[in-house]
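Data availability excerpt. The first of two example chains:
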Amino acid sequence: MESNWAKYLEIRPKKTKFALILRFRRAIELRRRETRMEKTKRYQICAKRMRMNLWVRRMEITGDIEDGNRRSQK
């Protein structure tokens, strides 16, 4: 395995690092295309989903999921 990697480096010594930098830069550019509003919206949706999951789980544990009233657990 190591010998193959050494051969690969001998064949193209400079290109590896350059290619890595290019790939990294491309990934950063893709991420930056998403605006701040879109990002916050995605996080809000994630948080909402997590909150709903927690609430449903709590309801299942306490056993009053059928009436569906949030204040019934207090």
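And the second chain:
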Amino acid sequence: MSLAALKWAVPGVLALLLLAAGATWKAQDWRYGKQLAEQSGLYQTDLTTISNAAAAHARTALEKQLTAEKARDDIDVKATKEKAHDLAENERLRRAADDSARRLRIAGSCHADSGYVPDPARAPGVDDGGAIELSATAGRTVFDIRAGIIVDQTALRALQAYVRDVCSVQLRGYP
């Protein structure tokens, strides 16, 4: 091979190599572009699925929360009404006792084996009665204690209803 032919052959071979490399590059680009487009589509599908599941879960959680809040509010209204009614009844009884329209008495009985039972051979007396009448101060104290009991029992019933109707509803469906 002559030097002149070699001068033309080397650039020709280089041109062919560059052309082959460019064609290969372009073919790979098309193939990878197609794969990337498929992966992008799958990625978007996955994102949509995840987004829809999250939205459904959020809706469910919101519905449960609203249901629990309504149940809590209903319990609060009911407990408040019951407490107000019971306290009003206690106050009515207190006023009746203060006005001497009623007396506060505590019923009691003594069993024969207690040692406090009067002798059957003795005539019955005033101290053999079955009730004890309290003084006005002691009566007010009893009504104060009763008012505290009413408040505590109402709160306890409300808390039990809250646990039964609100907390247990919120926990249903969770692992």
